[in-house]
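For the sake of transparency, this paper describes our internal protein records without simplification. Such a record has a labelled line for the sequence and another for the backbone structure tokens. Nothing more is needed to write down the fold, since each code stands for a local backbone conformation. For reference, a complete record is included directly beneath this paragraph.
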Amino acid sequence: MKSAVLLLASLVGALQVEFIPVQPACDNSTFGNVEQIATEHFHVDWEVSFSEELVKGSVFHDLVVVSKEVTFVQFDVKDISVSGVWQVTPGSALATGKRQIPRVPKIAPLQYQILTPNPNVGSVLVVALEKALTFGDIVSIEIEYETHGTTSLSWMKKE
């Protein structure tokens, strides 16, 4: 298996850190770091263009730290272009899903990169958190993206 290396600027001290994504022991079909940080709620806002055969929008994740410390989040991705990742108000996924808030304020842009450490498993979106979080901390993230050349959707022609 080819290793992918990512240099993320550390937000604390502006140090360069070598990063190699690894699969969790509990599930070898994902690169999500679910043993460190877990999604409690998520909400998807999509615009679907049948004529362009693409999906464009955002996903909000309310995440809780389940390990001693975490400085990044890994999400499995396939056939997408990410236009931005932001830290947003905690609880935004649940509140947006319940339509309690019409627009989620972005708190801070987050550094991110898509890597493909193992093409058989897929790609991983690695998001550097604004600061290190510890057990029980909650953070919410918004990822804006659009699909391209996706194999996970089929577009039927009008007949």
Remarks:
- The longest strand covers residues 37-49.
- Helices lie at 92-97.
